[in-house]
Amino acid sequence: METVGRALSWVVWLAIAVGWGLILLPGMVKRLRRDPQPHFPLVPLAQPLGHDGSANASFFWEAVRSVVSGAVSAPGEEPNEVWVTSSALARGEGVVLSWDEWGPTVDAGTFYVDLTELGGEAFYELDVDTDVSEVFWIVVGYLRDGVERRQGRAWVYLAEVGLWHAYSGSVRMSDFEPEWAVQLPS
Fold first, then answer.
1. CA-based nearest residue to 75, from 89, 61, 88, 63
2. CA distances from 121 to 1, 146, 154, 174 (A)
3. What is this structure's pTM?
4. How far apart are CA 92 and CA 164, in angstroms?
5. What pLDDT digit, counting tens, does each position of 4-19 carry?
6. Is the CA virtual torsion 171, 150, 141, 160 positive or negative?
């Protein structure tokens, strides 16, 4: 009986160790691989973000338009959405900017940037307290240069930082693959 208890104890300890390993492994892989880390320039917002999600989405769009001259917008499917596209993208590709008209996030100035056609993890929730620079420059790169698809991943080039940003179809697998790269994989 004591042997069974001891064996069961070892199995539980092993399961705990494996669980912690799975939790910590993605971060360790990225640190060991020394992936390049981008340093983003300032975002040319006309005004700082405030507590109105609609206005914040508008400021974001105006800043994008100031950098990407060919970007155009159109009303989205919902009244609180704006569809943004450019000539560099294929028909049906683009960015959806949206905001909440009611609910708990309204007072935080929350707005959303939806690039989910690039991958499952390409949906961003931004608000008055969020640094929007990464998302902004990804949107700029996407609208200006389009997307490259290689090895099951969508890659967007950010000329301002000289790096490619990758999206994969699987959020879990993206933990083990580089998110930023100096050049595209062949």
1. 61
2. 49, 18, 11, 9
3. 0.78
4. 22
5. 778 888 888 888 888 7
6. positive
